Give the backbone structure.
Amino acid sequence: MRLDLRSIIPVPGAKLPFSFQMDLTSLDFFGEKPITRPVEVKGEVRNMAGALLLEGEASTVLDVVCDRCLKPFSQEMHVPVETLVAESVENADSDEGDEIVLLEDGQIDLDAVFETAVVLAMDVKHVCSEDCKGLCPGCGVNLNEEACKCRPEPDPRFAALAQLLDK
């Protein structure tokens, strides 16, 4: 979505709200596509004494798989975005220019701004709960649902003591 800001650029204190949906279902994260629903985007651009400030939030529900127990679950995702918007940057060599979104003919591409924010906020690991016990490395049983029936492997450093117990 392109938002035309030419109407608020010359008016200090002016606001321009926006609300739209993005389709990011084709984004691939490490071989998975966790975004299966539309991303809701809401916010506004304000002219604060000649400086344009974009504030908004992207929200969706992710369908992911727990990295510990491999159980599928849904997780809410809220990504706040706050950035300056300008027609040009005087010192293009400075690092501060990375935090400013530039206008193209008085318009801003909100899809690009919020898609970048969602991609950068995506977690690498997903866990269904903080106390998830995961899978048994021996038999593969989900330790959240049942106890493991594997016999623990003895520590090889105590093998000589185990032989004494067997006698």
Notes: The mean pLDDT is 87. The longest strand covers residues 51-65. The longest helix spans residues 110-121. Strands lie at 2-4, 15-22, 39-48, 51-65, 72-86, 100-102, 107-109.
